[in-house]
Design brief:
The protein is of the alpha+beta class. It has helices spanning 44-58, 78-91; strands at 9-11, 28-32, 61-63, 66-70, 99-103, 108-111.
Amino acid sequence: MEICEGTESRVIEEFDNLNRVPWNQVEAIRIISCGCCCCCEAPQDECVRKNDELLYSMGWQADAGGAILTRDEAKLPLREAFVRVVQWMQEHPESASPCIVMETPNCQYYTENPKSLST
């Protein structure tokens, strides 16, 4: 996978692909499609609370249709934040598995199903 340009998008299907994302150019990570916070089989309040604690502890902010973590607001490197959120989703099968997008000035890298990322 090469660095994408223009309006291209590249799918991240394995954790190995993360090494090819130009993290120094990533300006924000966006969770689209309500994140883990509204599609749970577990008691809703409990799931929302646990997930919100994780997201807020890393600097995520609520955003239309999900959540966003910008480089300026992040309390840890964006790559690490991405990995921690995906690992949380994989450890909590009751959580939703939304699309996660890494936004650079030139394009987007995204996961269609973070829970299926192979390590």
